Amino acid sequence: GRAEGSDCESLGSASGSEGGEWRHMEPSLPELELLHDPEEERLCGRLLEAVQAALGQAPLGAKRRCRLIMPEPLAAQVGAELLRLACSEPCGLRGALLDVCVERGRACHAVGRVAADPTVVPTFQLALVLRLDSRLWPKIQGLLAAAPALVPAFGHALRLAPGFRVIKKKLYSSEQMLIEEC
Q: What residue ranges define each of the domains in the chain, with the CATH number in brackets?
């Protein structure tokens, strides 16, 4: 479901256009077969590596950084969604500017910003909103409160939940925002 009032929905509204309706535009099966581009897939792999590097030093707390772990099935699902959202763009995935965010409760923390291809002027912006695995967080939170000396100075590792949200905003058009919940 959608978290009403979450700070994550306001991400990427620097150009002043706000709001948006929910739409789901999915290519048909023959269109997906035509979209198979090995260069885009390599670029997507590099983009996911940059996302995982940003997650490795996530600033989720005031005092400590956390290492967020993205399970392989989640990474594959995110990669497929990024490729699908880029297929209708003039430069494909090369024109993507990706904001990586992690939702923790009702708060949304910016983890990093990655340009898919820094040599290309971005044509669209994506906000990838990941969530902490809530099944583990209460246990870890209790452990940290009970024994703060056991936590390394740099932080600790937390696993991400399988679901995510992607907010797409075209930077060259006044078209409304597209929000995908996966």
A: 38-170 (3.90.470.40)
